[in-house]
Amino acid sequence: MASLRAVARLRHLAPRTHLQQRSYVAAAAVKQTQRSGEQPFFPNEPTGPIVQTAIPGPQSKKAIERLDKVFDTRSFNMIANYQKSYGNYIADPDGNVLLDVYAQIASIPVGYSNPSLHAAASSEQMISAMINRPALGSFPSEDWASILESGILRVAPKGLDQVFTAMAGSDANETAYKAAFMWRRQQDRGGPDVDFTADEISSSMINQAPGAPQLSILSFKTGFHGRLFGSLSTTRSKAIHKLDIPAFDWPQATFPLLKYPLEDHAEENHIAEEEALADVERLITTHPLPPCAVVVEPIQSEGGDNHASPSFFRGLRKLTKKHNVLLIVDEVQTGVGATGKFWAHDHWDLETPPDMVTFSKKAQTAGFYFGNPELRPNKPFRQFNTWMGDPARAILFRAIIDEIERLDLVANTARVGGYLFEGLEGLAKRFPGEILNLRGKGQGTFIAFDSPRRDEFVKKAKGVGVNIGGSGERAVRLRPMLIFQQHHADILLEAMEKILKS
Questions:
Q1: Does the structure show a pLDDT above 60 at 366?
Q2: Per the residue annotation, which of 330, 355, 390, 450 is the catalytic one?
């Protein structure tokens, strides 16, 4: 109750868009309720998008020109005004207000300027964490265990009761890879109590075996796991990420490329998945740099929103157990409720949990979960850096979890995702050839489709008031927030119809 009272007290702090300044607030709540029969999570949201200028408009162009002098702006999607962004809507300096179904590349969980997060950010615990940021490996605060237990570990995947905190998704994967390598070499030596040899110690300093062992991490074609050196060696989505960067000679297995609709291609897809699993086993057993772990995304996100069946992932888990290889599930983009379950791998019904699950994005913090105590290095400072995460961001994740539970947002995502998918199926029938390979049924709002004119589609979306993104070569991917509701889905579907007619 205390947290709800805090939210109520902070309602007046919610940012006001120019729409709200026109006193639309009460009408917005009534209109949204009448339209879908649901109560809006953010009653003070705009009733819909407003497009007043081309995007970017004159004020945005001035901001970009100024920023470009000191910061690379070539990858910009748009310039935002976050003080006027609220709920599912992102505003820009020109007064444009867009329904945001891209959400900072799938990273905003419970809406812009969420009053509950504002309350958490204003707490004395948060203020202390920000102004007295600790080097967690050496000087953790006395409440660090409590922060972890009441937040990050409260939603730990089944069977995983420990966490290594990190700074970002790439960092989370890098440290998981390091844990896998150390675990493997510890096994080779005969256990955690067997010390390093003099040869291992000296050879490690010149980047040679045995101290720098000839091992690998197996990943999948078209996968994405980050842009740091180890994670980049397992990233296979786009050449632009990898060009000019030295990489490890690590193996990549075939990811099954499913055909849609799934019910029309069941036998072909089964064969594709069996062939992919055979490729995994071949590489585990024959690659000259033996893999000590397999890393996989539940849905290959940056690589084009590529799916596989639960059966495929259960087969992958059996292979890793058979060959004593760790399974790392990269839930950086799929985790925290986006697929209608808190963790996407919960859809798989695994007999045994993954060995590690990495997370970031919607968690607003990062790291990897694990359960096996042998994944802790046998000596201190082996898995270490100055910050080792950020208590302020862990506190924010705790507030996000509270908001997800208060509003039952995982169930909301599953429900609204089904409604949205049905609407997209209708558009695909009405506009044949424009919405291809629609995928993500039963996966919450983690939905995508292929478009023969993807870049044009994404650009035109802003003109009808929607911020949307792409992935892979021609996929349009939907990444709405967990507070995305049926009336937002209606707005999105209407906007898409306008694009498809144009």
A1: yes
A2: 330
